[in-house]
Inverse folding.
């Protein structure tokens, strides 16, 4: 018999990334998904429960996911969800810890270049040490996705060919462009599933690993390998040659 997934609480359920995280959680075997809301509303999705921050009492959830993302201005739906401010993270994390949350997953934006300047500056000043000092059993910080740098230096005719290919990459999706929010959300949920059974502690998933996971069809093996400290697939893509 498959054990039930822990109850999960999401702060930052609006925006492109936050809504994708909620979607993957609801479809990923979590029987109870709670989301911090600015107001009470009737959830149309089965298994989703909005909760007001002032109503948080222990045990609120086993695991919490805090998603930082820009607000969408499409239909006003995002206004119903709490949007965490970077400078309020220590206070929010303290509230979650006092509400019985044992495991915490922080998800940074998948496309930081598109964020408002104030939010970008706030993310740069995240007080991660203060959060780690609160004593969560598991704390994982997912950085913004970024392709790995480096590679062999070209010369001669190959350098000319690489320059041509670099121009072509402007017209097609390549490693320099941000990954899709859905892939980052898929990785976050894979970590959430595997986190309770992993070794306790604080972990920071580098930008390159987030990017690498976004290239995988199935992110769960990579998430498990990373949590276990096992080798990951080679993150470097071979440049096309001419």
């Amino acid at each position: 018999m498959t054990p039930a997934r822990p109850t999960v609480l999401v702060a930052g359920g609006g925006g492109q990334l936050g809504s994708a995280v909620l979607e993957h959680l609801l479809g990923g075997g979590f029987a109870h998904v709670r989301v911090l809301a600015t107001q009470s509303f009737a959830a149309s999705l089965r298994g989703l429960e909005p909760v007001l921050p002032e109503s948080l009492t222990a045990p609120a959830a086993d695991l919490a996911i805090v998603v930082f993302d820009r607000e969408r201005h499409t239909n006003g739906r995002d206004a119903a969800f709490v949007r965490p401010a970077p400078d309020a993270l220590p206070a929010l994390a303290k509230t979650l810890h006092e509400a019985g949350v044992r495991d915490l997953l922080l998800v940074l934006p998948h496309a930081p270049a598109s964020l408002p300047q104030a939010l970008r500056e706030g993310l740069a000043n995240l007080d991660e040490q203060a959060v780690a000092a609160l004593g969560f059993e598991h704390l994982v910080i997912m950085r913004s996705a970024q392709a790995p740098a480096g590679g062999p230096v070209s010369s001669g005719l190959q350098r000319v060919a690489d320059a041509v290919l670099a121009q072509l990459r402007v017209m097609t999706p390549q490693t320099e462009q941000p990954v899709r929010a859905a892939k980052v959300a898929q990785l976050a949920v894979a970590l959430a599933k595997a986190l309770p059974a992993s070794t306790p502690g604080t972990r920071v998933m580098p930008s390159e690993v987030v990017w690498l996971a976004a290239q995988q069809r199935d992110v769960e093996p990579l998430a498990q390998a990373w949590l276990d400290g096992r080798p990951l697939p080679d993150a470097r893509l071979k440049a096309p040659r001419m």
Notes: Strands lie at 8-11, 33-36, 48-51, 63-67, 103-107, 138-142, 201-205. The two ends are 54 Å apart (CA to CA). Helices lie at 15-26, 89-98, 117-124, 128-132, 156-168, 181-194, 207-214, 220-228.
